[in-house]
Amino acid sequence: MIETVVKRTINPRWQFTQSGVVALYIQTGLQSLPGLFGVSDIDDERIVDYLVYQLYRQRTSLANGSWRHTYLFSQSALEKYRNQFLSADGKSGMNYYINQWLDEAELSRSQLTAMIAKQKPNPLKKMIYLPSEEPIKKRFLNTDAGLALCQQSTTGWSPLSETCGRCDNWVECGKMTAKKYPELMRFRKEVYHGRKEK
């Protein structure tokens, strides 16, 4: 993302230094960034806001070749961001000029955010199999009471559950589970079909 912004706004031939030291510095800087906002985690939009501001602020240094990657998360850079955007004394209008600068290069914050966005795993994938549900599923196994208990007290049929594999009601339980938890059931069916094909 940094290289894209600089190449499109300042110097099309600019190359971002690719080294382990630089990568580690940036990774450490990004990990410390939530502290600037007083939180434990920040979203990708705030990361883009911070980086774009720093690049905009340092555009002259970038243009004349005197810029160093250590400027990005220096104490001075953090203070300038805090004073500009997080302080009651910050000057309004800065984002207008930054957005105008990006627009001239046919860039937008949403495009830049998409560049750094990480695919976030669906939390339901962690629920494909819940070992903690096995004792409940075993109670009254293969009875109507067991099916009712399973549906009331668990997330229902799972292809990885040993108890579900021994249950005579697994087809009906699967249909009921799909009605209650369609997205979870979609992941469970993927696992089930994957196991059958092996």
Detailed description of the structure:
The protein has 198 residues and is mainly α. It is built from 12 helices and no strands. The radius of gyration is 26 Å and the shape is elongated. The mean pLDDT is 90.
Sequence-ordered SSE layout with sheet pairings:
Elements: H1 2-9, H2 20-37, H3 44-57, H4 59-64, H5 75-86, H6 94-104, H7 109-116, H8 134-138, H9 144-153, H10 162-166, H11 170-180, H12 182-197
Helix pairs in contact: 3-7, 11-12
Write a concise synopsis of the structure shown.
The chain is mostly helical and 198 residues long. It is 63% helix and 0% strand.
Which key features would you list for this structure?
12 helices
H/I helix tally: 12
The major beta sheet can be summarized as:
none
Structural class: mainly alpha
Order of helices and strands: HHHHHHHHHHHH
Number of strands: 0
Quaternary structure classification: single chain
Structural Rg = 26 Å
Strand content: under 5%
Shape: elongated
Please give the share of residues in helix: 55-70%
C-alpha end-to-end distance: 41 Å
Low-confidence stretches: none
On the 0 to 100 scale, the average pLDDT is 90
